[in-house]
Amino acid sequence: MKFLQFFVLPFLMVILSVSGANLARHPHRDFLRCLSLRIANSSTITYVHNNPSYPSVLNASIHNTRFSTPTTPKPYAIITPRKTSHVQSTIYCSKNHGFQLRIRSGGHDVEGVSYVSQVPFVILDLVNFRDVKVDTKNEVAWVQSGATTGELYYGIASKTQTLGFPAGICHTIGIGGHLSGGGFGILGRKYGLAADHIIDAKMVDANGRVLHRKSMGEDLFWAIRGGGGNTFGVVLAWKVKLVPVPTVVTVFTVNKNLEQNATKIFHRWQHIAHKLPNELFTAVWVMKVNSSQVGKKTVQASFKGLFLGRIDELIPLIQYAFPELGLARENCTQMSWVQSVLYFGALPTEPVEILLNRNALPRLSLKAKTDYIREPMSETGIEGFMNMFLEEGTDFAITMIEAFGGKMDEIRENEIPFPHRSGILFESVYIVQWINEEDAGLCINWMRRLYSYMSSYASKSLRAAYYNYKDLDLGTNNINGYTSYEQASVWGLKYFKNNFKRLVRIKTMIDPMNFFSNEQSIPPLLSP
Ligand code: FDA
Fold it and tell me: Carries keyword Oxidoreductase (predicted)?
């Protein structure tokens, strides 16, 4: 007994207290141990900060360099799963060892929320989930979340010239985040959003259950089609319906600057663009350019279009509906639909293999905001807007103004969570970019002033915004702890309008403990 009391028990207590302290002080080590117990050779898919590949794996898909500075919080580990069971294990171990999980597909989140967090976190990077299987007979494709839109477009085009998919313009955006938030692109007026074409999905929820459309039920299936990523679970793959495209399409660009009546033509465009035939998508890109007077700058409105048909049909159509544009044959080029994606991405249209290059675009720091405009702006309003591009901090600023109408008008606001449909003339995506970190303040201030200027023209009762271009200025969840419905409504209603309430209800059902969360994820009603 004495032996037990004086030798064994103290010894045991020391061991227990040391391992207890370890538990308390080394959640990192326990997280890794947890992964290694559940995944064979887990070290081959896990990158912790002392791993030589950690920086390259982390930076591989950071598309906003605003969030890759030395002071940006870094994940404890990045896990690049190869199997569904790896995803289940990562969820289990993060949950049990107190790490927040950030899911990353293409890494284009404009607020960096797929790879930055203010609390201890790990990244689940779906870079190895990038299969694209196209079934031309049934006009569908299964695409994994870590594939890019470019890989999907390429996968379709390498099998058929008569099918396409209506998703975003930039070919490096990830399917996972893009489809989770909507996905508008050059086929949008003809067919609607990428998310309107999802017909099945495979996801893993917070309890590690693998769900498909049938097993998840129609509520959850509704929510993941535009209700935002990193809220309901990890979507591993999507089954999408492809859409018909002609073998030859026509693209055009007409540039007009302030000295060439850009303001007047833009004013006219707003009255016409949403009423044009669904086969014709047009957009206006506004940016600062060199003027013809040496050393001076001007502002250019670049009128761009995609017509699902040939030049000979397009020219008379525009000459009748929008003669002010002065569209001429030399402004137009015929090409395949898949080449038109590259054209809108301001890239060479050949070889189309560029679509497979995830590094084809320069990476800068950026801040974005969005608006949905229902009433045409006055000519003086447009002039004021364009003149703001002559201010400081606008060297890499662009506003992409994209016509709505067509199919977008026909889809009900509550069909999927993305609610911005009937009656919208155009979506404005304001982007300001910079190269040197010290310009960040100047550029972001300019963006906020531009947004404030546009408040007179944006939807009056509720200033709506597009979730796929997150804007944390609109409000955020509390970093640690409970966020009330009222608090989240401030930004939630802007993104989702009346669909926000249903999203909260579904979130409460599927993830009541709020395991999947980020600054603007949907909060459950009674999160801890
Ligand atoms: P990322 O990997 O950063 O994920 C974005 C969000 O979704 C994060 O919250 C993330 O956690 C979550 N998420 C990612 N994968 C998930 C998964 N598998 N399961 C659950 N959650 C997941 N939009 C548009 O509609 N049309 C366009 O033309 C463009 N063009 C464009 C160009 C550029 C240069 C940028 C930076 C952005 C766009 N966008 C856009 C916006 C784009 O659609 C949006 O940023 C997408 O969320 C990007 O998806 P990623 O997978 O690349 O991002």
Answer: yes
